[in-house]
Amino acid sequence: MGNQGDTFGNGGVDVQRTRPSSKGGANIQTLQVDETVIFYDIGGLSDNIDALKEMTFFPLLYPSFFGNYHISPPRGVLLCGPPRTGKTLIARALACATSKVGHKVNFYM
């Protein structure tokens, strides 16, 4: 696999390896945002995608609403579920969509 700190290709996604945490935590890999993945590519999860868009895009589009009502928008999204159900594809589409709006997005796996 190479030395720590190497960058290698993984299915068209650039992955940079990180060192293990000194506190015994998990390794976190930062991924580059793939500009070609959009929500239209995902089939059969329209209700989930709509809820995710509402949760993430409303605070970006209407920050004054959240400020006026003293509501803290979500700071992250945790997708969980069985393998091969679209979690990674949804995360990539979300990262692509928010980066196009001009907001920096970190995509961890």
Topology record:
Elements: E1 7-10, E2 13-16, E3 30-31, H1 46-61, H2 63-68, H3 87-101, E4 107-108
Antiparallel strand pairs: 1-2, 2-3, 3-4
Using brief descriptors, characterize the structure shown.
nucleotide-binding; 34% helix; 109 residues; alpha+beta; Rossmann fold; 2 domains; four-stranded antiparallel beta sheet; P-loop_NTPase; 3 helices; ATP binding
Write down the CATH class of the largest domain. Alpha Beta
Helix amount? 25-40%
By CATH, the architecture of the largest domain is named 3-Layer(aba) Sandwich
| Overall spatial form | globular
Percentage of residues in DSSP E strands: 5-15%
Total number of domains: 2
Q: Tell me the distance between the termini.
A: 17 Å
Low-confidence stretches: 1-16
Major β-sheet profile: 4 strands, antiparallel
GO molecular function: ATP binding; ATP hydrolysis activity; chromatin binding; histone binding
Protein name: ATPase AAA-type core domain-containing protein
Organism: Cryptomeria japonica
GO cellular component, one term: nucleus
